[in-house]
Amino acid sequence: MEVxxxxxxxxxxxxxxQVIKDLKVKGAGSTLKRGTLLKKIHLTDDEEAIECRVxxxxxxxxxxxxxxx
Length: 69
Fold this sequence. Notes:
By secondary structure, this protein is mainly β. The protein has one domain: SH3 Domains (SH3 type barrels, Roll). Helix content is 0%, strand content 46%. It contains no helices and ten strands. It has strands at 3-4, 10-11, 17-19, 23-25, 30-32, 37-38, 42-43, 49-54, 57-62, 66-68. Strand 7 (42-43) and strand 8 form a beta hairpin. The two termini are 21 Å apart.
């Protein structure tokens, strides 16, 4: 299974990615701003989603909103 970012670049466990558009975080009442760097991502069973830690919370994000950095 290959996990790809919005540009088609293959993502691997532990990579760093950037958010390419502002995303509202459900339940947290906050927003991930465009350009936010997310380090040490974790791949999930879904090839269109990754897990990451942001401010002590674990989030699952769709790869269509991310680019490898």
